[in-house]
Write a structure and sequence with these properties.
Number of helices: 14
Largest sheet: 7 strands, mixed
Structural class: alpha/beta
CATH superfamily of the largest domain: Type I PLP-dependent aspartate aminotransferase-like (Major domain)
Distance between the termini: 53 Å
Strand order of the largest sheet: 2-8-7-6-5-3-4
Radius of gyration: 21 Å
Shape: globular
CATH architecture of the largest domain: 3-Layer(aba) Sandwich
Number of domains: 2
Helix content: 40-55%
Length: 382
């Protein structure tokens, strides 16, 4: 009989996303929980994947990513943010944004280092920090506007602080960083040795005429930052798990040391297809309008419900407060909503290390209009 070693992640179980999706499937509920579209990627992009697969582009891609893809990422970055990262030394294609997050954390975090985590936080951050010997230090966003209290951030910085994780547009809240936020961030870390991770996978989903405030817009922030993006989110193909990281040469060098032994390279025909499709700038430039219309539709359909909508400035998620409907904990209410009403959502408390419960659920509106209409009809009947 062999004795298993102590778990490195004793508090980690099956993710809430898997739990709620399985519950939705079991009860035949409309799944607005896990963040994936119920519509396909652009047909031209799918055709390109088929073409490259049939034409033999099926062996290992370069560890850093297909060269032309990295060149096109650089051009895209310059178009959007006014900076052209060097494709050879500053851009790495990864097997999804989650891999990129792990590589970035592993590249700079050492045992005993502290990492500032803004909560509610995406669920992969803390396990990656712990696996690399780091200590998460939690900073809650204000409720209900979900803004960063920069004075509070200052109080959490110590000589052990190595890294600050920022997610904008923010999952799960839909909040976005402003230019003033970047000013405050620059002032706070200017004379420190703190690195930054900019989780910017929803960069093309910023609404109401606002611009995405990427860390790349500020040289004094970019030189200490890993900026992480996702093709899966941009092209409605989350199952492809293709992302990339932009970082200065010294950070990229360390990032790639982890990446080459974690996944080595990313699916080859998809990289070539994305290379070609990136020439179509209209897709990602029009994406804010595309998703803003879905957000507006879902919110208008929910007008007659008993939920109170919390404004979403970005992502494809919409929060709704239900505290005036029931005192149930959000996990219990989300389960009941799935089982009895027929709509699955994510309880926001699971994004907090201490399961802070504001009686808020997260709905994904990256769905066809029919799906949103059917879901809203059920929710309005509550």
């Amino acid at each position: 009989m062999i004795t298993l070693p102590a778990s490195k992640l004793p508090q980690v179980g099956t993710s809430i996303f898997s739990v709620m999706s399985q519950l939705a499937q079991t009860h035949g509920a409309i799944n607005l929980s896990q963040g994936f579209p119920d519509f396909s990627c652009p047909p031209e992009l799918a055709d390109l994947v088929g073409t490259y697969t049939r034409n033999g582009f099926n062996q290992y891609a370069p560890m850093t990513g297909v060269a032309k893809l990295r060149e096109n990422i650089s051009r895209k970055t310059q178009l959007l943010y006014g900076v052209a990262p060097n494709p050879e030394t500053e851009i790495t294609v990864t097997s999804g944004a989650t891999e990129a997050l792990f590589c970035a954390i592993a590249a700079v975090v050492r045992p005993g280092d502290e990492v500032l985590v803004i909560e509610p936080a995406y669920d992969s951050y803390v396990p990656a920090i712990l696996l690399n010997g780091g200590q998460p230090v939690f900073i809650p966003l204000s409720f209900p506007d979900y803004q960063i209290d920069w004075d509070l951030v200052k109080t959490r910085i110590t000589p052990k602080t190595r890294l600050l994780l920022l997610n904008s547009p923010h999952n799960p809240t839909g909040a976005t960083l402003s230019a003033e936020d970047l000013n405050n961030l620059a002032d706070i870390i200017r004379d420190t040795n703190i690195f930054l991770i900019g989780d910017e996978v929803y960069e093309h989903m910023v609404y109401d005429g606002h611009l995405h405030q990427s860390l790349l817009r500020r040289p004094e922030l970019a030189y200490r930052s890993f900026i992480i993006s996702s093709f899966g989110k941009t092209y409605h193909a989350t199952g492809w798990k293709v992302g990339y990281c932009v970082a200065p040469p010294a950070l990229t060098q360390e990032f790639r040391k982890i990446h080459q032994y974690l996944t080595f390279s990313t699916i080859t025909p998809v990289q070539y297809a994305l290379t070609d499709y990136l020439e179509n700038t209209e897709h990602y430039l029009n994406l804010p309008t595309f998703y803003e219309q879905k957000r507006n539709l879902f919110c208008s359909l929910m007008d007659s419900s008993r939920f109170r909508i919390i404004p979403s400035a970005g992502t494809y998620f919409q929060l709704a407060h239900y505290g005036h409907i029931t005192d149930e904990p959000d996990v219990a209410f989300a389960r009941r909503l799935t089982q009895e009403i027929g709509v699955a959502a994510i309880p926001v408390s699971v994004f907090y290390h201490n399961n802070q419960d504001h009686k808020v659920l997260r709905f994904c509106f990256a769905k066809n209009e029919d799906t949103l209409q059917q879901a809203a009809e059920k929710l309005c009947a509550l």
